[in-house]
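As a warm-up, study this chain.
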Amino acid sequence: MKKISAITVAVFLFTTSCKESTRVNLVSGKVYQDCNVPLPNTEIALKSNVGGSFNDPIILGSGVTAADGTLRFTYELDETDIGTGSILLVKSSGFETLVDNVDLNKDVSLELYRNDVTQLIVELSGTRIYAASDTLFYELVSNSVIYQQIEPSNGVIDTIQVPNSSPNRNDVSEVMYYGVGYESFNRAKASASNPDSSYNKVNLLLSGCGSASTANLLID
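Now compare it with the structure written out below.
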């Protein structure tokens, strides 16, 4: 009978013990087209980002949403792998990012909105008295829509639906600028991109579907 040396056995046991074990991770949740309508029959994928254990981005796993928008798929990684990933909506022409910086090698449950919208309540305050010829203009830095109110008065003047510039994230920074008449409005527009100016602008935090924020426009 052929003898097996103690050294051979030790090397085998050492090699076996050093093998990395893997972890199966679950991605689950629900995907919506907007704040209320589920998104069915759509492929959703998880892509690794560069960094941590990943030198190149790769698709780790994917699944197709059910008729009610629910999502469930698994992916496998070595237990020692670390990093972040992005949840992507797969289209015929490429990908659409739904959310970035998802921790990898962890089970996650997410509610994802393709069109993530915050309800923004616009209030006007201050000491100015407005004439019938006065028009208040206001706009968001990330939104090309100019809103206006003719002969406004203090209090709630508008409620608008604002698409989040970074979908599926809480406390996304936004700036609204405003002015009565074009001269004041254009000055405020220049102020919006100048961190040293506070003229007629308000800093906001938007958190997307199911949330509301208030913009207080102060004019004295």
